[in-house]
Amino acid sequence: MGYEWQFAIILEYWPIFARGAITTLQITLLSSAIGLFIGLLVGVSRESSGIFIRSVTSIYVEMIRATPALVQIVWLYYCFPIIFGYQLSAMTSIIIALGIHSGAYVSEIVRAGINAVDTGQFLAAKSIGMNHFTALRRIILPQAGQKMIPPLINEFANLMKLTTLGSMIAVYELLQESNNLIATTYRPLEVYTFLAIFFFIITYPWIWLSQRLERRLKMRA
């Protein structure tokens, strides 16, 4: 017996998806801002001449990249209050956790962008009396920034998909709202199919833009 699809149910409950989409966007934007701040700071610090700074930032990057984002979210939500005696809300937990998670990957993007600039630029800056960080700020980072844009856009798209992990701690983003809707309508195929299509619609344009910018930069090189 064939399954009878009833996508009209989605139109009836569209405010639920809209509410989930707004929450997803909030998480993505705020965690991206945190990730960009951390990533820029750590990426620049990993190019420092100080062994201690390089070691600390390298440990952070490797620890974050070697553990799943879901484990990081769950740890911050459940373990943080036990250790420090302060309970973060579910929304705050996922924003901070994804920001820290993204920061490790953004730092590698920043580091790769810095290393892509000709080392002669550093030598020229130092020859006119600039210190390491002044040369980075005034000469290296402005040039590296163009090369960072495509992978940063791609990281933004990946972060948007990671927001679905918020359903594990009852953050009412798109996946959690979809699960609640399924409990009401008993139409999982329609809801999950629409959810997959919706995520494709909001995520693929960023991936496409990243690919276009990357090709354009290669043509200019």
UniProtKB/TrEMBL annotation:
GO molecular function, one term: transmembrane transporter activity
Keywords (A to Z) from UniProt: Amino-acid transport, Cell membrane, Membrane, Plasmid, Transmembrane, Transmembrane helix, Transport
Record's subcellular location: Cell inner membrane; Cell membrane
UniProt membrane topology term: Multi-pass membrane protein
Domain of life assignment: Bacteria
UniProt-listed CDD domains: TM_PBP2 (cd06261)
GO terms classed as biological process: amino acid transport
UniProt main location, coarse: membrane
GO cellular component: ATP-binding cassette (ABC) transporter complex
Transmembrane segments: 20-44, 84-106, 191-209
The keyword Transmembrane helix appears for this protein: yes
Ranges for domain ABC transmembrane type-1: 21-210
Classification via Pfam families: BPD_transp_1 (PF00528)
PANTHER family attached to this UniProt entry: GLUTAMINE TRANSPORT SYSTEM PERMEASE PROTEIN GLNP (PTHR30614:SF20), MEMBRANE COMPONENT OF AMINO ACID ABC TRANSPORTER (PTHR30614)
Family stated for the protein in its record: Belongs to the binding-protein-dependent transport system permease family. HisMQ subfamily.
Function recorded in the entry: Part of the binding-protein-dependent transport system for glutamine; probably responsible for the translocation of the substrate across the membrane.
NCBIfam families, alphabetized: HEQRo_perm_3TM
Name the UniProt record assigns to this protein: Amino acid ABC transporter permease
Source organism per UniProt: Azospirillum argentinense
